[in-house]
Amino acid sequence: MTDIVATNQTILVVGGGISGMTAALEAAECGKDVILLEKNPYLGGRVSQLYKYFPKLCFPTCGMEINFRRIKANRHLKVVTMAEVAEVSGDRGNYSVKVKVSPRYINENCTACGECSKVVETEFDDEFQYGLSKRKGAYLTFNMAYPQRYVIDPRLIGTADADKAKEACKYDAVNLDMQEEEITLNVGAIVWATGWQPFDANKIQPYAYDRNPNVITSVELERMMDPFGPTGGKILRPSDGKEAKDIAFIQCAGSRDQNYLKHCSRICCMATLKQCTYVREKYGDDGKATVYYIDIRAIDRFEDFYRKVKNDSNISFTKSKVANITLDKATGNPILNGVDTEGYHRYSNPHELVVLAIGMQPSVDFQSLGLNVNVNEHGFIEADPESGMFAAGCASDALDVNRAAQSATGCALRAIQVVNQVAAAEA
Amino acid sequence: MADKKLGAYICKGCGIGDRLNADQLAMIATREGKVAFAKQHDFLCSQDGIAMIQADVDGGEVTHMAIAACSRRAKTEAFSFDNVAIGRANLREGVIWVRPDTDEAKETTQEMADDYIRMVCAEIKYMELPENSGEQERNDRILVVGGGITGMTAALESAKAGYSVSIVEKSENLGGMAARHFKRIPVVAPFAAPQDTGVEALIAQIESNDKVTVHLKSTLASTSGAPGRFEAEINKEGSNVTEKFGAIVQATGFNPYDANQLSHLAYGSTPDVVDQLGLEKLAKEANGGAIKRPSDGKEVQSVLFVQCAGQRSDKEGELPYCSGHCCLTSIKQALYFKNQNPQVDTIIAFSDLRTPGAGGEDFYRAGQDNGVTFTKSQVKEVTANGGSLTVKMQDLILDEETSTDVDLVVLATGMVPNSGVNIDDVQTEDENGQPVEPKPRYDANDAILKLDYRQGPDIPQLVHGFTDSHYICFPYETRRTGIYSAGPVRRPMDMKQAQDDAAGAAMKAIQALENAAQGRAAHPRSGDLSFPDFRKEGCTQCKRCTVECPFGAINEDEQRYPQFNEGRCRRCGTCMGACPVRVISFKNYSVDSVGQQIKAVDVPEEFDEKPRILVLACENDAYPALDMAGMNHMEYSAFVRIIPVRCLGSVNTIFVTDALNSGYDGVMLMGCRKDEDYQCHFVKGSELAHIRMSKVDDTLKQLNLETERVQIFEIAITDIDRVPTIINDMADTIEKIGMSPFKF
Asked: Which of A353, A390, B182, B593 sits CB 3.0–4.6 Å from A411 for a disulfide?
């Protein structure tokens, strides 16, 4: 870690998802020195956990490959993974940032040959798969994980498995004595690209997420669709492992609700329309999707996609906020109860699987970090022209990937303005 | 470069040394590959290994190196050395990890590795370090076309970063559409009330900023050049001035949809039906007082907003898309009334209320809290009814027809992008379906940028006339390098989004001019210093390269020779693939650097029963998929030899015919998806490859070869399972149809 050089003409980007990578690359490709911090052992963030993007239904790893290639080729950009910001002091043009770097227990020698993983037996819940499956205690998070370097789970340290991993490595890449480090960076501008997390579905008690295994969240469905994911690319009911062909989607699960998130999470309508196509992709004419919604927010040209999905006779739409979900014990089917507001019909509809279009909330509690930024009641950072700190992507609002990348590109410029002004003042 | 010094480095780590005979690989490198030396190392990417290579570089021992180790996608940073040409032979993900570790597989696995050594040695022999083209110019001035809120913001954001700007605005004032608004949708918490547009403050900042020059009543007469050296003729009331620019931001905004087409909503037949801009005008006149209706000046007591008027519609002449901002704009306008007099009835008739994000939903709630009525209804008809207006609606909740009388009706009509001409609107067939010399259906005088590009005078449109990027991950991807669009010309959006967008586009413009100054490519091949070079004496002026370039990088000179514009070029090699006489190449990626790899492969004799299948794989999607198949130890045939290519568009048909003539038994091309939702990062590369390969069939027939021997596939980066299967299927096919008769 000692080789990180930062000055008040350096831009710090916090978060290595699509927004952070974009902000960092756009600035670095302008010749600016950038440090990109990521708390996970890999870059890519939430988009690396998505199967496809709307509305093109293309694969997120495709753009990620380009971004990784840009990162590998750029010497102005320094990536530090497993790093979290602990404290920020100072002002625009001159910040001091304390960063906590967790031990990976694997050093730069790692060739990603995988021998350590082969010998380790202990398994842990795989957080990348939202706990839907397990992974080894020595692991590469996913096929495209960058940096392409294994990780040892800290819970493995001190066990015989850890020693086995060390022995298996021919390249001296395993270092079980690695310690947490704290580094202090002096930087001119900071881009917060810390992204989002799914709202805690357990809090939406009427939807029985914690009680009915056949109620899952939209982010979990994304993992199921991945051929290398927890179900090998199949939509399986957690209760009995059966293929689920009749799927209900509940919109605004946690969003637009005074009890949970007051804001609209923007992405969930389009995400659900996209996921409706997953059901058809997997099961053809046997696949059936029903969307329970308040408003379908398919803005601008996304309307084209909405129209296409709406015209599919296997996909239906019910304007209703679902009141609650009960369980049909005989079949394991969740039963959705509520009132169809178009005509006021009471319904009680069984489906094989329910997907909650789960809301988006900021990953980081900026208020508790004690940052000198404006945080609104939804937890997002608001723009402040006097500050040298900027929020990119979902740290600033609920945004889709395209808008997040757009926001990050603009943030890169605002950060460049700061360091260029510093440079001009020092010249 | 004076003397080429070729050397090879062979890694024996990660099992390569255990599974393969490294001494044999080294011998092949020196004897057949003709490299001066081949060094072996147990762990080449270690500090020690890298130091060994670096010492050779520093000592002048090597200028062109072959690194035979893992995939070029692995350890990329470790194996990156300045001022040397580097080729990578993929012995790990491409050989030992895709082959079983058995005695019977040993021979064919070793042959695979042997060939990859021959190939990489051939590649580096024909590689050159990119040289400076001498075309690089630095110009720190940005041209912003359009002086609305987007253009002004782009200009100020660029100026704040130290760059100078010229704004070209066709009207006599700055401010554009935003200046016609009374207030704007709130952009800061608590998102509860309309706020000042800020347009006047922006204009004042522009006028006092010495980095920004404004040309009012001006349009572009022509734009030529490339990033770093654009030259624009600016026509100001009939006289032209010429300015030079490094990059361009197009912020030409939108025009309001012509509501006269909505006669059933009584627009045009009574002045009391207005569109949203019409209501802004009334609000400005009222300036915080009671808004009066146009017909008789009566203070409005009731107003109804018709959402999606002429939008989200499949009717002829109406807009199919949603303009995104209109729900929030109607809430804002309803609050103009409510904030002045809470007794005014304000009704918003909508089908889906679209107020996304944090601020959007808060503002919706503010509307509700202030007593704005929201009704999920479809407005069928508006009729003037002596003094008031009768609005007939279908209530979608109660499923019944309702009717209400109001003083004023506001139509939330959509945004029509002001994007100039659609350069793809070209006639290519006559009325009988016969191909004709392509002829634009548009009038070039209607273009905004008036580019002197062969591909047309404006930038390409994505859909519905908007000039947005095709790529989700890259919102500022452009097919005209150095020209970025922002604001409602790119995508329908409100003022806040337009201002954010302006900053993004300004960022890309700045980056483009910085790249151009150094001869660096924009992404996806960011930083690439190579550019296409052509041998004039061989050129037949067939124009294929100029026509097929997806980025409009190539013009034609007076003698119809291609004129390459480095700054516009994205280094995909589509021109190299297009050229029938193969005179176009890059220094580090050429007809030879690929062609000689194909020829370097040792093709066994027919009775050996060891077919050879050439795979040309797109480096962005297919090659990573193959790599990941390797990482997952999925097996595939030992008979394939894979060459990554920049894009399938760079694949010249000569590669295929050469391969067949050299005795290869099959050729597989792996590129990206090519339809309207194409994934090709160079837009048309994959599609062009498909077109070119359809013509290879004739060649196959001439050679008396089965057409199955050449196949082209669309491969996504996620096709990790699929790539081994299609390779093995191809190997099976070859087994069925038999070996090629062209073995020597």
From this structure: A390
Q: What value does the mean pLDDT take over residues B119-143?
A: 93
* ipTM, 2 dp: 0.97
> 3-state DSSP helix/strand/coil percent for chain B, to nearest 5?
35, 25, 45
Chain B residue numbers touching A80 (CB-CB < 8 A): none
Domains parsed from chain B with CATH numbers: 1-129 (3.40.50.920), 141-253+418-518 (3.50.50.60), 267-321+330-412 (3.50.50.60), 533-571 (no CATH), 603-744 (3.40.50)
Question: Which chain A residue is nearest to residue B77, measuring alpha carbons?
Answer: A72
C-alpha to C-alpha distance for B591 and B532, rounded to whole angstroms: 11
For chain B, how far is it from start to end, CA to CA, in angstroms?
A: 36
Does an H or E element contain B30, and which?
A: helix B22-31
How far, in Å, CA of B359 to CA of B366, rounded? 10
B591-600 vs B653-661: helix crossing angle, rounded to 10: 20
In this prediction, residues B384-412 reach a mean pLDDT of 95
* Residues of chain B contacting residue A61, judged by C-beta atoms under 8 Å apart: 624, 717-718
For residue B127 the two structure tokens come to 């590689």
H-only helix segments in B560-663? 574-578, 591-600, 622-631, 653-661
Burial of B428-447, coded b for 16+ CB within 10 Å and e otherwise, reads eeeeeeeeeeeebebeeeeb
pLDDT at A1 over 60: no
pLDDT at B437: 87
pLDDT at res. B393: 97
Whether the CB-CB separation of B70 and B78 falls below 8 Å is answered with: no
Q: Are B121 and B114 in contact (CB under 8 A)?
A: no
**In CATH, what number does A10-102+180-195+363-426 get?**
3.50.50.60
Chain B residue numbers with beta carbons less than 8 Å from the beta carbon of A148 are 73-75
Mean pLDDT, all residues of chain A = 96
Please tell me if the domain spanning A10-102+180-195+363-426 has the same topology as the one spanning A198-360. yes
How far, in Å, CA of B478 to CA of B471, rounded? Answer: 10
Is the pLDDT at B2 greater than 70? The verdict is no
Q: Do A416 and B161 touch (CB under 8 A)?
A: yes
Of B397, B491, B681, the CB nearest to A300: B491
The tokens for A267 are 């992405």
pLDDT exceeds cutoff 90 at B542: yes
Question: Are the CB atoms for A10 and A35 separated by under 8 Å?
Answer: yes
Stretch B325-346: mean pLDDT, rounded?
A: 98
Matching residue, tokens 């001019």: B513
Q: Is B557 on the interface with A (CB under 8 A)?
A: no
Q: What is the pLDDT of residues A371-410, one digit of tens each?
A: 999 999 999 999 998 999 999 999 999 999 999 999 999 9
Give tens-digit pLDDT for B68-82: 999 999 999 999 999
Averaged pLDDT of chain B: 96
d(CA B696, CA B577): 13
- In angstroms, the CA B410 to CA B704 distance is 71
pLDDT of residue A427: 82
SS3 state at B297? coil
Choose the CATH number for A198-360 among 3.40.630.30, 1.10.287.3510, 3.50.50.60, 2.10.50.10. 3.50.50.60
The proportion of chain A whose per-residue pLDDT surpasses 90, expressed as a percent, equals 97
Strands B230-236 and B239-245: antiparallel
pLDDT of A364 higher than 70: yes
Residue A112 at interface with chain B, using a CB cutoff of 8 Å: yes
Enclosing H/E stretch for B282? helix B276-286
Cα dihedral sign for A370, A374, A378, A380?
Answer: negative
Give me the mean pLDDT over the A316-345 stretch: 95
Q: Is a pLDDT exceeding 60 seen at residue B507?
A: yes
